[in-house]
Design a protein that fits this description.
Strand content: 35-45%
Shape: globular
Largest sheet: 10 strands, mixed
Number of helices: 6
Distance between the termini: 38 Å
Structural class: mainly beta
Number of strands: 29
């Protein structure tokens, strides 16, 4: 039997007020209270050794800093470096400020597993407290209405000894990173795959166990916003808004830039007016505006296993695929669902918004070109209404034509459970699915499809379940 290990780590935050300057804009804290570049008599009264181990994250006023690999690379505000051998942490606060004018939270890594096994070169020991981990998933709305579905769940930890009784009381928990790793017993820790990064949302504890609710990082993009941005393609506008509102730059530290740019190319790349309304009622969560952009571009924003933003867009005109979900690898008794209730016969699009001091006014375009064919085939009418920041009637017609092309016909859907070797296949990818009977042939055969969801099943023998939709 293959010995597969699931490791879960969490950053337990603690506020730090003890910093020593170590150059222009650089500040340090040493767990052992050793600052060899200053006279110890000059340290403020009360400086002392601190109990922190490996650092997983640093936050300033709730915003995550970027980790760099060497002290020499610590050159820009918003970065941090940790020397595990000397147990010394360096940061560069925003604006080259003194740390005292911000709330700096140090996230110390704690590791948990289903047993006491700790892989070679792991940064922390893994306590055998893990009782249950959630099924981690990413999914797109099947009709690309722009709704972001957030993955997450609850992690259960054993607390019979009471060690976690005051975890929330004594530490800064909420919003801190949570990571799930998977690997084999004989692998070095560096070879374990990080399959999920989320954040702590809630915590509860009783005499037997503690429960930590984890949530998708996209859920944190909820800051009330009202921004005016230039007309760009939808994918570019999303990362532009995230940078303007949250200060998160479009770099490899925060994005899978290659995958994101590829999604921009394959998405419905029309320019649109991303100016945000000027009335007070327009101040709403940034996620609302991001969802409008996703809908306008027919693409999906999601989080990579290592916690970076990425995007994907389906190539609806694809005629072939490089990946096969092989019949012999499909582990579940799948079924194929054909659901006419998901079919759309017409679409009404609000576009070219104008703003007053009290309301937003949209022009309206209604595309009914598929009504007759939908009613003939499915004996039903269904109209979808949506407001988008498209800048012209011509762009709106193009968008509505593609929307109805995708959604005016029943497409078969299914869920397929497969081994971990398919971990590199992701949401939005076009694949061949071998949907055959056990004795070969039958069913629908090898079908060109695209991935609508991906779930890591971490209880028992780990597997992956893909949601697919036929092209």
């Amino acid at each position: 039997m293959v010995d597969i290990h699931r490791k879960w780590s969490v950053d337990i935050g603690s506020f730090n007020l003890q910093w020593v300057n170590n150059g222009s804009g650089i500040w340090a804290v040493d767990a052992l209270n050793i600052y060899d570049w200053v006279d110890s008599s000059l340290l403020e009264e009360g400086f002392s050794a601190q109990e922190f181990g490996p650092i997983g994250s640093v936050q300033e006023d709730g915003i995550l800093f970027t980790k760099v690999s060497t002290l020499a690379a610590l050159t820009d505000p918003g970065e941090w470096f940790y020397d595990g051998d000397d147990r010394k942490l360096w940061i560069m606060p925003s604006g080259y400020d003194e740390p005292s004018i911000h709330t700096i939270t140090i996230g110390v890594i704690y590791g948990y597993s289903f047993n006491e096994f700790t892989p070679d070169s792991a940064p922390v020991p893994y306590e055998g407290r893990l009782l249950a981990v959630p099924s981690v998933s990413i999914a797109s709305d099947p009709l690309f209405y722009g709704i972001m579905r957030y993955g997450g769940g609850t992690v259960e930890l054993a607390n019979n000894d009471g060690s976690l009784d005051t975890l929330a009381k004594d530490n800064e928990l909420y919003g801190n990173p949570v990571r799930i790793f998977i690997g084999f017993a004989d692998l070095d820790y560096s070879e374990y795959q990080q399959i999920y990064t989320g954040f702590i949302e809630t915590f509860s504890v009783n005499k037997v166990s503690a429960s930590i609710s984890v949530a998708d990082l996209r859920k944190q993009l909820s800051r009330p916003s009202r921004e005016t941005r230039p007309s760009r393609t939808p994918a570019i506008t999303v990362n532009d808004l995230i940078e303007v509102v949250y200060g998160i730059p479009f770099t490899e530290d925060f994005y899978d830039v290659t995958a994101y740019n590829a999604a921009d190319i394959h998405s419905f790349a029309i320019s649109f007016d991303s100016s945000i309304q000027l009335n007070d009622s327009a101040i709403r969560p940034l996620t609302d505006y991001i969802e409008q952009c996703l809908t306008a571009g027919f693409f999906v924003l999601w989080i990579t296993g290592d916690g970076r933003y990425t995007a994907s867009a389906v190539n609806y005109s694809a005629t072939t695929a490089g990946t096969f979900l092989r019949k012999n690898d499909i582990m579940n008794d799948f079924e194929v669902v054909y659901d006419p209730s998901r079919v759309v016969s017409s679409v009404k699009v609000g576009h070219s918004p104008t703003w007053t001091t009290s309301e937003t006014v949209y022009k309206t375009y209604r595309n009914t070109t598929h009504e007759a064919s939908v009613f003939s085939a499915y004996k039903t009418y269904k109209e979808h209404a949506i407001d988008l920041p498209l800048i012209s009637t011509s762009n709106t017609i193009l968008w509505s034509d593609l929307f109805l092309q995708i959604n005016s016909v029943v497409h078969g859907t299914s869920e397929l459970t497969v081994p971990l070797k398919y971990c590199g296949t992701n949401i939005g990818d076009v694949v061949y699915a071998e949907l055959e009977r056990d004795n070969g042939g039958g069913m629908v055969g090898t079908t060109l499809s695209y991935i609508t969801s991906k779930s890591w099943n971490l209880t028992g023998v780990p597997t992956i379940t893909f949601g697919i939709r036929f092209l």
